[in-house]
Amino acid sequence: MKVEQIMGGEVSRRGILKSAVTAAGVAALATGGFGLFSRAEAKGGPTEKWPWPYEKLDPEKTAELAYNEWYRVFCGNAVISSVFSQLREMVGEPYKSFPVDAFVFLEGGMVGWGTVCGSNAGANIVSNLIIGPRIAGPECENGAQIGADALQWYSETPLPSYTPKDPRVKIEIVKTTSESPLCHISVGKWMKKSGYAITSPERKDRCARVTASVAYHLVQDLNAWKDGTYKPKSTWKAVSNAGITAQQNCTECHGSNIPVPPSAKK
Question: In terms of pTM, does the model score above 0.85?
Answer without folding.
Answer: no
